[in-house]
Amino acid sequence: MDSTESLIEEDKKMRRLRFIVDLTAQVLAQERMTIDEALDLLNATRRTVLRLFPGKEDTYDIIYGRRFERILRERFESARDEQENAEG
Q: Is 84 left (phi over 0), alpha (psi -120 to 50) or beta?
């Protein structure tokens, strides 16, 4: 494989990565799901991304792990607060 083909393949992998991560973020933010379902989705996303980029666990955790944690925190803490307000 020459360098042009290599660059094209890398570009395809990066576009696929962005699509997977953006779709996961949208589903986490918008779909009705339990925390367990959300964590299952995140684990599946992580496995998929690491199949594309083996050995990049630390990079994934730093970049995407933090993004997903923020979404989960915002989503599920606000749901918990709403539930507590309804009960109290």
A: alpha
Whether pTM > 0.90 for this model: the answer is: no
> Residue 64 carries which DSSP code?
I
Both tokens of 68, joined, read: 């997903």
78 Cα distance to chain centroid: 19
CB atoms closer than 10 angstroms to residue 38: 19
* Domain boundaries along the sequence of the chain: 3-87
C-alpha closest to that of 63 among 26, 17, 31: 17
| CA 27 – CA 1 distance, rounded (Å) | 37
Render pLDDT for 18-61 as a digit per residue (tens, 0 to 9). Answer: 999 999 999 999 999 999 999 999 999 999 999 999 999 999 99
d(CA 22, CA 77): 21
Q: Which tokens hold the place of 85?
A: 């307000």
